[in-house]
Amino acid sequence: MKKLSVLFAAVMMFMSFGVAKAQKIATVDVAAILNMMPEKIKADEQLKAFSTAKQAELEKLATAFQADVQKYQQEGAKLTAQQREAKEAELGKTQQNLQQMSQTAQKDLLDRQDAAYAPIEKRLNDAITRAAKANGWDFIFDSATNGLIYKAGPDATAAVKKELGI
To answer: What sections of the sequence does the record tag as coiled-coil (predicted)?
Structure first.
């Protein structure tokens, strides 16, 4: 009976050793890597140029609208009631068009951002996967997120950069 107990204890110890295998965890600074990727830098520049162009266009139209409003305020007293109603309706329509153009520009910018960043994020995720497999990491956490409570594992940032060639 004693031999059976010893054998049972040995088997349980052996099994628990396999179950208790330490999981390898690493962290990576995703934002830092993204900001170093040439294609992300290029995409940021293109998106900034697009945004600046749209903003300049909207500002030009808004300035013209403001000039029309000021002109109406100065000359409104000289107009008949019917002319004033027509001018106010025209100004209201112009204001609505400006707001719609602004919303459209914002949506266009977001669509362009999504289209530009999707392949960049895929490339980064693929590199993280390759680095994790190459180094035997079971989990990799983004070190910049607030969800990370404990950070003592190896840092995967260098390995991911190596996979990306940066």
So the answer is: 55-104
Q: Which CATH class is domain 16-164?
A: alpha beta
Euclidean distance between CA atoms 33 and 137, whole angstroms: 19
- Residues 95-110, mean pLDDT to the nearest whole number: 96
* pTM exceeding the 0.90 threshold for the entire prediction: no
**Whole-number pLDDT of residue 114:** 96
pLDDT in tens, 56-67: 999 999 999 999
